[in-house]
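User: My collaborator sent over this chain with a note saying "see what the structure looks like." That's all I know about it. Can you take a look?
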Amino acid sequence: MTGPSLADIEAAADRIKDRVRRTPFLRARFLLDPPAPGEILLKLECLQVTGSFKPRGASNALASLTPEEIGRGVITASGGNHGLAVSYAARAADTRAVVYLPESTASEKAEKIAAWGAEVVVEGSVWDDSNDAALARAEADGLTYIHPFADPRVIAGQGTLGLEMLKQSSHCDTFVIAIGGGGLISGIATAIKAMKPEARIIGVEPVGAPTLTESLAAGRVVTLPRIETAAGTLAPRRSTELNLEIIRQRVDEIVLVDDQEMREAARWLWFEMGVAAELSGAAALAAVRAGRISLDAEESVGLLICGAGRDGFT
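Assistant: Without extra context I'll predict from the sequence alone. Here is the result:
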């Protein structure tokens, strides 16, 4: 399996243009305390339909299926956001959706997934357990499985964010992106490095779920022995070879933030901008606020606020 090309991402952008929103990319430098050097821009993908970037990938994946694959219905496993996106995309495609969730998923996300018309099954303590169950169900019932981060069609859809950010702020030098399984940063890095090779791509993982950090250090995909973060949408125990290879080639650095730093960043977003971001949605901002990233005085930095929610400030 190979990752998507720039042409694949451009095709995805055309394919999903009527299914997703063009979200704002706002300047926020002087709102930080202390002020960060250079220019800080916030890409508010938390305002995307269903509350995260995920409909980009899910919509592209479903739009790329054959009529027979769509007709069988679709199934996935998710920490919450991908499940919402698949439910949304399935409704648009007029087909059935089944979503497996781990026990750690916020109840309000499970309720929203059901409200979009999907069958919700809660199984396992972490995403990896739910995914095993979803794969077994797909095989048993003949459903079409949509992987949340290792499907090239999903990665291409997420990569449309890279195209969009460069169109909105072509002068941006550095892009800071939260990492769960790695599909989001894989797509964005593929798009941005193809169009602006000198741009810097920095990933952010939770201290309690350093899935790609550990895999890069080991030179292979590793399975974490445990997950110790409340940021459930950034917490698979294992990524895939596809994502690891793209990240190895196109991501310049990965930094770690803890749950309290993400929580404080989420509270800042709510207090200063009226933006309700979940912990994962605040991870990129947390990395800047906590000084994890070295920034120059003239540097323009884009931070992806990738998901909405209340767990970051309640």
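A starting point for your reply to your collaborator: The chain has twelve helices and ten strands.
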